[in-house]
Amino acid sequence: MDFKDYYAVLGVPKTASEKEIKAAYRKLARKHHPDVNPGDAAAELRFKEVNEAYEVLGDAAKRQKYDELGANWKYYEQMQNQPGARAGAGGGFDWRVHTGPEGFHSMGPEEIEELFGQTNPFSDFFWTFFGGGGPEAGAPQRRGRRQRAMRGRDIEHELMITLEEAFHGTTRRLAMQHGSASGEASREQRTVEVRVPAGVREGARLRVSGEGERGGGGQRAGDLYLRIRIAPDARFERRERDLYVKASVPVTTAVVGGEVEVPTLAGRPVRLRVPAGTQSGQRMRVRGHGMPAVGSTDDRGDLYAVVDIQVPRALTDEERAHYEALVALAQNKKVSPV
């Protein structure tokens, strides 16, 4: 996995604010969205790169790691995805020592302390990269020590979903490898099915009972908490339970009135009546086509169509003649005596 400069991918400096990063992502996602570029493999690849970059830079904790590790980020990502990565330790570097006929065992924090004393001999970078916070952050205990009876710790992860998934609700299957309260990594992998309800908000926490760290000494396991993050959408903007979308209106329709189609997250466009004399930037409300309330799909916010008047870039001779006639008519109207 080659190192990617995610700042370059989004076209922002390293000092960019969260707002600037989000704005750059929205612009690029809209430009390279597969719906806007059907059949364009290069645009689809670019769209995936932009989403990959935002997944890291749009998350404060991941961005900090990325900035700290630089070109070593790829190794950190690889180690995070290793089957033996330790739950709760942010990574998975396993100190192993030879014990003669018994083979090897993992060193715990007390053994490391016996070797090096109270002073931590390693830099913050070392523990950031290999241990995710140092030996005290959940390193394994010595083999042979009686396991203490203690409830497993709760684990929290972020779950990125699309705005469309937040609108309809979705089910995600997550591959989990559980650690234990004693710090030991489990070889057992479980698939956890998580139901995300329709209408879920940014930052909401979903609880999955018993899918956290395994308990020690027969005690119950902790819980898994998933904090929801909703990726910015290329077409829609969410504000609480209302949605905002651009409505492209031909200049002739804006002048004399008519109807246009407006997309919805439900997948079925709605017809919107445009009154004569409509101005660019004007907002029109479509009731009941916003985000649903959690637990009540019948209770929905509203959809606001923001008018974007489309001026033709090319005209036929006949169209030009009509527009010129309108210009002449407008000029005569200005100079006509009252």
Structure description:
Residues 81-108 and 110-145 have low confidence and may be disordered. The longest helix has 19 residues, at 317-335. It contains ten helices and 15 strands. It folds into four domains: 1-81, DnaJ domain (Helix Hairpins), CATH 1.10.287.110; 82-136, no CATH class; 149-233, HSP40/DNAj peptide-binding domain (Sandwich), CATH 2.60.260.20; 236-333, HSP40/DNAj peptide-binding domain. The chain has a four-stranded mixed sheet. A hairpin with a 2-residue loop joins strand 8 (236-239) and strand 9 (242-250). The protein is α+β, with helices and mostly antiparallel strands. 30% of the residues lie in helices and 26% in strands.
CATH superfamily of the largest domain: Urease metallochaperone UreE, N-terminal domain
Q: Tally the beta strands.
A: 15
* Span between termini: 76 Å
**Total individual domains:** 4
Overall morphology: elongated
How helical, in percent, are the residues? Answer: 25-40%
User: Which residues form runs of ≥5 with pLDDT under 50?
Assistant: 81-108, 110-145
Provide key terms for this protein.
10 helices; single chain; 30% helix; four-stranded mixed beta sheet; 4 domains; three-stranded mixed beta sheet; HSP40/DNAj peptide-binding domain; alpha+beta; 338 residues; Helix Hairpins
Question: How would you summarize the topology of this molecule?
Answer:
Layout: H1 6-10, H2 18-32, H3 41-57, H4 60-69, H5 73-80, E1 96-98, E2 104-106, H6 109-116, H7 124-131, E3 155-161, H8 163-168, E4 170-179, E5 185-196, E6 205-208, E7 224-230, E8 236-239, E9 242-250, H9 251-256, E10 258-262, E11 270-274, E12 283-286, E13 292-293, E14 296-300, E15 303-310, H10 317-335
Parallel strand pairs: 3-7, 9-15
Antiparallel strand pairs: 1-2, 4-5, 6-7, 8-9, 10-11, 12-15, 13-14
Helix pairs in contact: 2-3
